[in-house]
Amino acid sequence: MRRRLVSFGDDLYFERAVKIALATGSRGADAYYIGLAEAIRAPLATSDKVQAHNAKRVGVRAYYVLDEKELKELIQLFKCRE
């Protein structure tokens, strides 16, 4: 199986990350991950409950993986086996 690495510069989502941090009170690193997920239209999987909550507040599809229900939803999204 071939895998491809994709890289994104933060110029793609920096300004949005700042707005997310100010709107939600997120830490800078959390806002960066939320902003990146939003920019590339990808779900955010995290073990940080606050980060998942803040992502959802700004409309980013987020999954708190330490919650059994949300983990199952994420697994189903990617059609993985448990």
Helix content: 40-55%
Please provide the ordered H/E string of secondary-structure elements. HHEHEH
Give the overall shape: flat
What is the strand content? 5-15%
**Any idea how many domains?**
1
Distance between the termini: 21 Å
Which consecutive residue ranges, at least 5 long each, have pLDDT under 50?
none
Description:
It is a single chain. The chain has 82 residues and is mainly α. It has one domain. Helices cover 51% and strands 7% of the residues. The chain is built from four helices and two strands. Strands 1-2 form a two-stranded parallel ribbon. The radius of gyration is 13 Å and the shape is flat.
Quick summary:
With 82 residues, this protein is mostly helical.
Layout of SSEs?
Layout: H1 14-24, H2 28-39, E1 44-46, H3 49-57, E2 62-64, H4 68-77
Parallel strand pairs: 1-2
Notable characteristics:
82 residues; two-stranded parallel sheet
